[in-house]
Write a structure and sequence with these properties.
The strands form three sheets. This protein has a five-stranded mixed barrel with strand order 1-2-3-5-4. It folds into four domains: about 100 residues, Beta Barrel (OB fold (Dihydrolipoamide Acetyltransferase, E2P)); about 160 residues, Response regulator (Rossmann fold, 3-Layer(aba) Sandwich); about 70 residues; about 40 residues, no CATH class. A hairpin with a 6-residue loop joins strand 2 and strand 3. It is elongated and about 195 Å long. The longest helix has about 70 residues. The chain is an alpha/beta fold. Helices cover about 45% and strands about 20% of the residues. It starts with 7 loop residues before the first helix and ends in a 5-residue tail after the last strand. The model has no long low-confidence stretch (mean pLDDT about 85).
């Protein structure tokens, strides 16, 4: 037997003694809450520390808040943050390490710093906004132009929710009797499914985007803790990049989420969202009324001026024809005088041109006649040289058969009568022999 052998109970006591030192008691610790639950008034959880880059858990410790302490701490925490303690929160807690023989090591919490959690929520929100800004999309939806009248409204809300009912009652009960076209795209507006549900509704609207002028995301009052689901990067990015202006009206005036920074318009309640849309419609209606009034005044001024002009013309009617006739007579006399002068000048010029043309015609005719005479004389001389008579005078004869000049021996036959023409007479003969 070894004298230094311990029982398990003795070992646990030694561990408990080693852990019960000032360095492990009444210390502040930052961690994330995991698997939090309340049983018998006591609050049980795991305190975890995650790697900021990978999200992997690098440290884990069981945490406990006893019932008498939890009832006080939970009320104080909610009063400051507006949210109850819940899984996923980053907290700063004070307590001490405890080691129990049956339950092992745990951290017994005696105090919580709610300001740290508020700062962490704001830090997460700022991280999301910084990421959206780096990606260049944080202001995209806020820069979208509104239609002159935004009366086709796609609504994202929970069916039967009080906020949705308030919005519809305010919108359709407006004093100006403006008409709106609305459709509800249902979504879960609290809990872990909120972000994915709202994104699905946005995608459904996008499938029929040309049918709408804007999107309204509304949720009535309730626990501020329920708004944590709206501090989500994926949801904020979807709204920031949506192609229609988005109005966000969730929570109360004091409540702020990431969506309030990226949506085109942020209002405090669903009713305020309806009032804003009604105000925009009334502004458009007022603009139309002003235009109608301006048109009416312009027409009235135009009609008044036309009436004055008509009265003036009515006064001119009795005397206007006389003046017109007199002016026409004067113009006619002036025209007649001008025609006489112009005609005299024109006739003189034309007579001069005709006289010149007559001389030119006479000269041209004489030249033409002489030319034709010379040409005929030349042709007559040529005919004289080429005539049969001239040929005969040169010692030639012409033999004709049946009145036609004989050109070939083959053209005559025995018994044919031939006539030979000489310069001084004719000889008739008959063909007696063979060819």
């Amino acid at each position: 037997m070894h004298n230094d052998v311990l029982t398990l109970r003795q070992l646990n006591r030694r561990i408990a003694g080693l852990l019960s030192v000032p360095e492990t008691q009444n210390v502040w610790v930052t961690a994330e809450l995991s698997d939090m639950r309340v049983s018998g008034g006591h609050c049980y959880m795991e305190l975890v520390d995650k790697n900021e880059s990978t999200g992997a858990i690098e440290a884990r410790l069981r945490g406990i808040i006893w019932a008498t302490t939890y009832s006080r701490l939970s009320v104080d925490f909610f009063a400051v943050t507006g949210r109850p303690l819940s899984t996923g929160m980053k907290v700063m807690v004070r307590g001490g390490v405890n080691y129990h023989a049956s339950f092992g090591m745990s951290f017994v919490i005696t105090a919580i710093n709610p300001e740290f959690t508020m700062g962490d929520v704001e830090r997460r929100r700022r991280e999301i906004l910084d990421r959206l800004t780096r990606e260049g999309i944080a202001d995209d939806n806020r820069k979208l132009e509104w239609a002159a009248v935004a009366n086709r409204i796609a609504i994202i809300s929970a069916k039967g929710a009080a906020g949705y009912g308030d919005f519809m009652n305010q919108l359709y009960g407006n004093d100006s009797h403006l008409r709106f076209s609305t459709r509800l795209f249902q979504a879960v507006m609290q809990g872990e499914r909120t972000s994915r549900s709202v994104i699905d509704a946005l995608e459904a609207i996008m499938a029929d985007v040309d049918s709408w002028d804007c999107v309204v995301i509304i949720r009535g009052g309730g626990a501020t803790s329920d708004l944590a689901a709206f501090d989500d990067y994926d949801l904020a990015a979807s709204i920031a990049q949506f192609s229609l202006p988005v109005i966000v009206g969730i929570g109360h005036e004091r409540d702020v989420t990431v969506l309030d920074y990226v949506a085109n318009m942020r209002v405090k309640t669903p009713t305020a969202a309806a009032e804003w849309l009604i105000g925009k419609g009334e502004a458009a209606l007022d603009a139309i009324r002003r235009m109608a009034s301006d048109i009416a005044h312009a027409l009235s001024d135009k009609i008044g001026g036309s009436r004055a002009q008509l009265a003036y013309y009515e006064g001119l009617i009795p005397v206007a024809p006389v003046g017109v006739v007199d002016r026409a007579k004067n113009r006619l006399a002036q025209c007649a005088m001008s025609v006489s002068v112009i005609n005299g000048r024109r006739l003189s010029a034309e007579l001069g041109r005709l006289s010149h043309y007559a001389d030119m015609v006479k000269m041209a005719d004489a030249n033409r006649i002489k030319g034709e005479y010379d040409r005929l004389s030349a042709q007559a001389k040529l005919l004289e040289v080429l005539s049969p008579t001239a040929t005969l005078k040169r010692g030639y004869t012409i033999t004709c058969v049946n009145g036609k000049a004989l050109k070939s021996v083959s053209d005559i036959s025995e018994g044919d009568v031939m006539e030979t023409i000489l310069p001084d007479g004719r000889i008739t003969s008959r063909v007696a022999g063979e060819k």
